[in-house]
Specification:
Low-confidence stretches of chain A: none
Strand content of chain A: over 45%
Distance between the termini of chain B: 36 Å
Largest sheet of chain A: 7 strands, mixed
Helix content of chain A: under 10%
Mean pLDDT of chain A: 96
Mean pLDDT of chain B: 97
Number of strands of chain A: 11
Largest interface: A-B, 18 and 23 residues
Oligomer: heterodimer
Structural class of chain B: mainly beta
Strand content of chain B: over 45%
Distance between the termini of chain A: 39 Å
Number of strands of chain B: 11
Order of helices and strands of chain B: EEEEEEEEEEE
Largest sheet of chain B: 7 strands, mixed
Order of helices and strands of chain A: EEEEEEEEEEE
Amino acid sequence: QLQLQESGSGLVKPSQTLSLTCAVSGGSISSGGYSWSWIRQPPGKGLEWIGYIYHSGSTYYNPSLKSRVTISVDRSKNQFSLKLSSVTAADTAVYYCARWGSGRFDPWGQGTLVTVSS
Amino acid sequence: DIQMTQSPSSLSASVGDRVTITCQASQDISNYLNWYQQKPGKAPKLLIYDASNLETGVPSRFSGSGSGTDFTFTISSLQPEDIATYYCQQYDNPPTFGQGTRLEIK
């Protein structure tokens, strides 16, 4: 059974870079032709797709965040990562990683809260 | 980007009730629509994919229908464990989510 687990800093200062990693277990990140995605949810609000990295290694980002987002994959460690630069309080959210395939996000990681504050 | 308008934003119903949530796309998305359930403090869980297909292991009281711009999600007989927020999601790139429907027990 495929499982995803987010990790990274839970507190980031304004203007700095948020960095998160998603470890994939129970299967290879390189198999099945799947892509890998990040989604976030501000406290008490809805879901916002951030971007994904295709099995080919190419990336596709939400246009509203594109200038600040980088998603990368480390196949040797079976994990993928998110970097979001120049963060502000508006970037405070629970960040989820998820597998993307056939238009679906499934499964999801449990999520990790990132707070932007000085 | 395609906008998804989900309604109602909140809903209170009794155990055993039939519950319906709608999602309208700002343009034709064929059947490129999924439904997720999110319980408090948990990650969303896929329930319905491609508008009407039940994900493996999901109870049959959940169903979805629609195509084009108008979609419906139904719980045929509400159970206490169905208390959650439900989201639609379209996948005509880029993917976008509806605003969510918070379902409560009356």
